[in-house]
Amino acid sequence: MAASSRAQVLDLYRAMLRESKHFSAYNYRSYAIRRIRDAFRENKNVKDPVQIQALMNKAKRDLGIIRRQVHIGQMYSTDKLIIENQEKPRT
């Protein structure tokens, strides 16, 4: 993988993770982050430039979907789950 292609993949990976952290629902947020990490790890050894480009295009479409879903989730927000409201232990 060329250095510029590698940088683009890493930028896309970071953008997807960053955007996924904005999901208001804990379950969606944790699933999206886990799925993004798994997908990028699964394809880390791909060497074919055509296949890399196809995967990049799919990831860009998925980033758009994540952004739209984050906005929709913010319009219809719900209460936080108990797991999200846990206080940190005092020391």
TrEMBL record:
PANTHER family: LYR MOTIF-CONTAINING PROTEIN 4 (PTHR13166:SF7), PROTEIN C6ORF149 (PTHR13166). Residues 7-64 form the Complex 1 LYR protein domain. Signal peptide: none annotated. It comes from Tursiops truncatus (Atlantic bottle-nosed dolphin). This is LYR motif-containing protein 4 isoform X1. One of its GO terms (molecular function) is protein homodimerization activity. Belongs to the complex I LYR family. InterPro entries: Complex1_LYR_dom, Complex1_LYR_LYRM4, ISC_assembly_LYR. Pfam families: Complex1_LYR. One of its GO terms (cellular component) is mitochondrial [2Fe-2S] assembly complex. One of its GO terms (biological process) is [2Fe-2S] cluster assembly. It comes from the Eukaryota.
